[in-house]
Amino acid sequence: MVESTLLIDKSEGIATLTLNRPEAMNALSRTLRTEIVQAFTSLQHDPEVGVIILTGAGRAFCAGMDLKELGSTNTTLNNDTVGGELDIIQAMTNFDRPIIGAINGFAITGGFELALACDVLIASTAAKFADTHARVGVMPGWGLSQKLPRIIGLYRAKELSLTGNFLSAEQAAAWGLVNRVVTPEELLPTCRALAKDMQSCVPEMLRNLKRVIDEGFAATLSEGLQIEHQAWQARVRQVTPEAIAERRNSIQQRGRRQSS
């Protein structure tokens, strides 16, 4: 039996998605793109899943689009890839709970864009990032040219995109691209621990905060403040003093555990 190009493991409310084309550095073939879209669409309707961890098998997180497939068939990059039924970034954007990127190795071009679609990035010491759009001769279509400058700064983003040079995990952390760097052995345990921390929060608040942060990130500061205010107004009407007291007690107990 042919093994799936995307492995899905669900445990304790966490879904771990593993790109499973290690022989091709997890390049995004049409089959893999289809499976990613289907997975995120399905998990969006699964109330038992609170967090997704996205990672890769082998030495790469994702090498981007499968150029070998594109070069050897009549397959083209058309509207089903960006803005259509195989738009994996849109499928991830539509998922309303946290997505943790466990960057285990190379994240190149489209794979870099895949990483940027996650909410939190934890990198292995083996991780490396590169934007090779200028070297391949295609324009980014999944947001890299706009997201990357906003995350690491205009000049650093231009350095990466206009050279195609690799960025190490340690430098990525120094530039604010990833949250932290851990050993390969610690990567998935660290991501699972972080996912469990997220799950200990009020589920509705995870959804609302993710939405407000993302919408504000794409807006001006003034617009972002208005987005937050509207969300605050909608939520404050639903919060009772009893609920606040209960959550306050839970927070205090957690703080004592973490400081001991």
Describe what you observe in this structure:
The protein is an alpha/beta fold and 260 residues long. It folds into 2 domains: 6-199, 2-enoyl-CoA Hydratase, Chain A, domain 1; 203-259. 49% of the residues lie in helices and 16% in strands. It contains 12 helices and 10 strands. The protein has a 6-stranded mixed sheet, sandwiched between helices. α1 packs parallel to α3, α6 (144-152) crosses α7 (154-163) and α10 (203-217) runs antiparallel to α11 (221-236). It is globular and about 65 Å long. The N and C termini lie far apart (50 Å).
Helices and strands in order:
Blueprint (H helix, E strand, L loop, with lengths): L5 E6 L2 E6 L10 H15 L6 E6 L3 E3 L4 H6 L15 H7 L4 E5 L2 E3 L1 H7 L3 E5 L3 E3 L2 H4 L7 H9 L1 H10 L3 E2 H6 L5 E3 L4 H13 L3 H15 L3 H16 L4 H19 L1
Helix pairs in contact: 1-3, 6-7, 10-11
